Each structure stands twice: as structure tokens, then as C-alpha cells.
Amino acid sequence: EAGVAQSPRYKIIEKRQSVAFWCNPISGHATLYWYQQILGQGPKLLIQFQNNGVVDDSQLPKDRFSAERLKGVDSTLKIQPAKLEDSAVYLCASTPWGQGGYTEAFFGQGTRLTVV
Amino acid sequence: AQSVAQPEDQVNVAEGNPLTVKCTYSVSGNPYLFWYVQYPNRGLQFLLKYITGDNLVKGSYGFEAEFNKSQTSFHLKKPSALVSDSALYFCAVSSSGGGNKLTFGTGTQLKVEL
Fold first, then answer.
1. What are the tens digits of pLDDT across the range B52-96?
2. CB contact, 8 Å: A104 with chain B?
3. DSSP for residue A103
4. Domains identified in chain B, total number
5. In chain B, whose CA is at the least distance from the CA of A37?
6. Tens digits of residue pLDDT in A5-48
7. Could you count the other beta carbons within 10 Å of the beta carbon of residue B2?
8. Interface touch B100/A95, C-beta < 8 Å
9. Residue B29's pLDDT is what?
């Protein structure tokens, strides 16, 4: 079974530039998460999709961050414009839906973003 | 709102000694508890979970965890630590009726020394 795929692995941009990250979840997984992990901290949920609908985006800075999941499969996360404090690892994860929250999430390797 | 606390930023143990990494949680409804491990430049890997049933759950690489409802804790344990266990460990919680929302603690760095 293929895992969660993310690209790129690394990205360096200047502040005020834009950047996009891509995630392909495990086939058949209806729930997709984007997490932000700042160095030394635990992952913080940015947005959660079920199929192509948003379940939770309460912690997404909507003035600069956006995400979409077209057709309920792949997802992209965009930052525009980036700030220095956005430097972090962005993790994508997926789970099958309908399991009541007790199925473990499968994580991609993450995208390390450095804003200079 | 659900939350997880990992009170120790770092745990140091000698190889061959038992290890414990602490976790406490707060949720509404029944808790579902998870431990993940993260190696440098890698994503999070699932270790074990508690959903219901036996309070002692066993997972990958010889790890186990004990669920204690009265103390709202889910400590990670291993009887004999290995140097290769050195990594960053995260406790996470979701809940019945929580819509699959998964909340993580801040992580505990485990260092196993010879």
C-alpha cells in the first residue's frame, strides 16, 4: 500500500512570496489533514477535509493560508504572502472516514518551509 | 476542546533500563489515544493506540502504554530501552463525536544512552 505523498520536501522562499504544497493521501482515505509543525512544538491542525468538504479550519490563518481538495483526493495548501513565522514543517495525513475517530492517521514525510 | 499535555520536554535513560514517557489528556466523550514517533527529517509513525478494552495496549517495537481513566493519563512504556529508540515521541487524542479531529501534545525527546 502506497503511503501519503507530499511535495516538495524542502522549500526556501523570501517573505511576502507565495508557496504551495501538494499532498496525495492513501487511496480510499476520505479524511485529509494538514498540520503545521514549528520546530520544538507538536503538530498543530490547520485544516481537516472529509472528501472535498472542510470539517475544521478554525486554526487556519485565512488571511494568508488557503487549502483545497478537489474531487476529494489530492490537496494543496497555499500561503500568500508568506511571513517569517510560517517557517515550519507542513505535514499531510489521512485516515479512512467512518471509523469514529479511532483509526490512526498516516502521515507523509512533510514539507520543510524556510522563509527568509 | 480537547488537549494533550506532555510534561517532560526530554527523557534520558540508559540502554537496558525501562523507560516511561508521560501523557495526560482532556476530552469530552470517550477518549481515543495514540502514540506516534518521529525520527529526524521523517514524518510521524504510528506506535499504538487505545480505543476501548484492556487498559494496557501493546504496539510496535516493544512499546506499550497504560490507559488510566481516573488520572486521564496514557503513559508510554518500554521494559528495556535501546539506543535506537532515541527519537521524538508525541501523544495524541481524538474522541467519540469529535469528528476524527486529532490533537497532539508538544512532544518528548527520548534519549537513550549506552
1. 889 999 999 999 999 999 999 999 999 999 999 999 999 999 877
2. yes
3. S
4. 1
5. B106
6. 999 999 999 999 999 999 999 998 988 999 999 988 899 999 99
7. 17
8. yes
9. 84
Q: A88 to chain B: which residues are within 8 Å by CB?
A: none
HSE of B64 in the Cβ direction (CA atoms, 13 Å)?
A: 11
Residues of A in contact with B46 (CB under 8 A): 104-106
Determine the straight-line distance between the first and last CA of chain B, rounded to whole angstroms.
41
Query: Which range of residues forms the domain containing residue B94?
Result: 3-113
From B60's Cα to the closest Cα of chain A, the distance in A is: 13
pLDDT at A71: 85
Residue A98 has pLDDT above 60, yes or no: no
B15/chain A closest Cα distance in angstroms: 25
The domain that holds B96 is classified in CATH as: 2.60.40.10
Residue spans of the domains in chain A: they are 5-115
Q: Which residue of A has its CA nearest to B52?
A: A102
* Domain A5-115: CATH architecture, name and number where available: Sandwich (2.60)
